[in-house]
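User: My collaborator sent over this chain with a note saying "see what the structure looks like." That's all I know about it. Can you take a look?
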Amino acid sequence: MPEPRVGWYRPDDTRHVRGASPNPELMEGLRAITGLSSTVSDTLDHLGYRLAVPAAALAPVGKAARSGVVIGRVMTLRYLPLRETPGLSDKAGRLAHGTVFDMAVPGDVLVISAPPEMAVSVLGGNALAAAKAAGLAGVIVDGYIRDVDELDEVGLPVWASAITPVTGRGRLEAVEINGPVLVGSVHVIAGDVAIADRSGISFVPAEVFEGLAKGLLGRP
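Assistant: Without extra context I'll predict from the sequence alone. Here is the result:
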């Protein structure tokens, strides 16, 4: 019998993202705007949304995140501490990034929420390579990652709150996929549009993205 794969745990509370991916033409137009996450944050303020997270809280890690803009539909993954120590039969642990990758549409952005007091990783080198192969545009982690020396080789834009060598396997449990998550004190919903650059990340509600983008681009 083959060994179970790490990262393919499927929590009971798993759902697909509602709605289509954002208009690719609008996303491409937005990428040309200098200081995009800041501009979007200001626009969201005027619309009554407080959905921006500064780079001081979630920093770009690696060359790919520091050299451009990532825009994509949000998928979410929420972790909590394990309630019990797993037995030897639970060799794969209860990480679920692979499950999300299997559900993703190319261009999606994975947003992971993990307990901030636990200095354990939710994403390492193998997971980063799998995310890239699945076509994700980037990963945003309110929590710890590891294997950052492999980031530049993979070429995937990543934002994270901290770095650690310690694995989350056997310490964390995925409890929900594509439910609401808390990211840097911001309430993020699957289907939001993440706009991330060196200044930070702005999360745009799906229902206002097209109007916001057309307004910034001067289109009717």
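A starting point for your reply to your collaborator: Residues 36-47 form the longest helix (12 residues).
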